[in-house]
Amino acid sequence: MNPQPEVVIVGVGQQPVGELWDVSLRDLAVRALRAAREDAAGMRPEAIYVGNMLAASASHQANLGALISEYSGLAGIAEGVTAEAGEASGAAAIYLAYLAIRSGLVSCAAVVGVEKVTDVVGSSVESVLARTLDSDYEAGEGMTTISQAALLLQRYMHENKPPREALAEFPKIAHANAVANPYAMYRKAIDSAAYMRSGMVADPLNLFDVAPVADGAAAIILTRRDLLPQKLAHPAVQLVASSLISDRLALHDRADPLFFGAAAVSVQRACQSAGMPMSAMDLFEYSDNTTLHAILSLEAAGLAPRGQGWQLASDGSLARDGYLPVATMGGHKARGYPLGAAGVYQAVEACLQLRAEAGGCQVAGAQRAMVQTLAATGSTAVTHILQRLD
After folding, report:
1. Of 120, 205, 209, 315, which is least surrounded by CB within 10 A?
2. Which DSSP string corresponds to 44-74?
């Protein structure tokens, strides 16, 4: 029986995140894909997996696999499909590409994460974003992902008594790390005073506690390790393990709403598959959709006891020179949050770190990274473990 092939990422590409009014969804996707193929020494994918959350509703465009295959010049060469897992859609697309290559059915695949939030304007934005919640019991009652996170953070603060100022450390880390990221939406550091002055979005979440939704596109090229291009101008990065876990969709159906069970199981399975403990990671690109998501992600990953995840941001542990840097190029909060494309951006950023190509955002000596992307309030969690190949 032949062993399963090792999966490597040989090319990455991304577009700046922001309000990109003058660029269409298809153009965004194709630009990112072409950049990734150029970075991969021109490798031609046999399959394209697209991560997207909103296009069918916001851009009135479905069947993105066929669209992007055609407009990137790969029609008739590559099969194209779209993965939809809410805000974790891009990460789910990476998971599908990983499985396709490991199965031996595909030797080279492209993953494209793309989102055009600005195709929706006005008050309809919130209703579209709420579609990742349970339509009958949550969104239909006026709940949004932000209001749900706010209610949970209220409960978390009631039970664990973190000082309000301690929450400021999470966006402060993200914004400090984004300063040197040319693709980030917000490239300015903030201090505690600016955080405390910021207006409330949904009490206790203020403006800096919530990742700003935005447009963007990012892409990666994956292949088998034995097919690495000879002309590759940079180190390859092995996708050592990938795990996708779904929890109950409606929050009221979960045994403990203050524990991201899917995130915890996803980390455990990824580490088990990779044969690496969490302590072996040099950085953690977590899913800071809100400050609540950041805190509960740390606790789900076993990095802090229940109710104490907030303390890690205050003692320097999560800074770029700490023992486990997070959001190393700004995270969702400062890079911007392109929803279904966010997981692909995280993978691109982790690859740049492991290739020592992150510029002023570089984590010194990074060899291994964990990337985790969450949908809604932790209803789906996708975790990848990446390792530099020399």
Report:
1. 315
2. PPSEEEEE-SSIIIIIS---HHHHHHHHTT-
